[in-house]
Amino acid sequence: MVRMLRPFGRAVTYTRWLHLAMAVVWPSLWLFIDEAWWTVGTAVVLLGLAGLIPATRVVEGFQARLLLTGHRDGREDMEIMVAPATTWADRGRTMVWLELRLLLGALVSHLTFQLPLFTMDLVSTAVGGERVGGSWIPVGGQHWWHMLLAPLPLVLVAAVVVGSGHLITRLAARLLGPSHAERLAALEERTEQLLERTRIARELHDSIGHALTVAVVQAGAARAAGDPAFTDRALSAIEETGRTALEDLERVLGVLRESGKPVSGRPTLADADRLLDSARASGAKVDAEVTGPVDSVPGPVSREGYRILQEALTNVLRHAGAVPVRVRVHAGDGTLVLAIRNPLPAAIPGPGRGSGLRGIRERAALLGGRARTGPDEGDWQVHVELPLS
Asked: 217, 321 in Cβ contact below 8 A?
């Protein structure tokens, strides 16, 4: 019983009824112009033709979303679109929607007006009074048992209000819902947003992780050395690395604050020297060799190559410490090759462990390249090949 009464405690039940009642207002006004059914027919035809106007879908979608679903917070809802009709199929569905809404609205409005009158007639004849009149069901005579039937029309009104509300909401989702092209566009936009969030997470991981690793290594080395000159150099390296990390953090936060803001200022392989200098300042003996036209590498490849090199050097400092590192960067033959090798640390990380190594492989895969990480002939290697086309 409580479950049956639950819909009447929701505001959307009554706004759905209001949505249907509003549909018959405009055609009913034509009866005041000329009390003839041909005027109503003209109004129905004009209403259908209004569905050919692209903006009609916006108006109907907004009403349906507000009154049928109760979404008043402006959130996106792909069940009912609030967008102009861009194809003839969308216009056709809008026309069908307008006519069905009018037909269902007229039926529901008539029933919700007539059935209470029928209840009043039953009550009146049960107590021996005169019929109220207006009901399309004839009630004659005086019968006490009419009082037992009086609640039934009201129950039927409640069923009509709830049932028609569910029906018109389903019709709205079917006729005012997104087309195949709109669903595909929304899916692509959602995919782009997820990819952007993943890229930003990798950016923060690589930049902040590198800065913290350098700071920890430098601070530990300075404390162990006990040399004021070395401590001064370590603090300078921590300061420079921290400043770079703050710049990256501010840039990423700027992108998050302004979704339409273009991504700019990201470091490329042209800035690789500061990564190498930072690793050297942390005690690593870096042997770097850069060959080929690295400066002409396409922007996306160069930016991702920088982050891959940054993560590889960060892993060296974090897991191996101040060890010799061989860095080879070569651009040529349509491929950018990044090769970083260092002696194996005491604890060898597995090939699938760590978000840093996974991030390297993900970056390479997104650009159509490939990455190999793991032990190789007594060294730990990170070997990445990225296509330049």
From this structure: yes
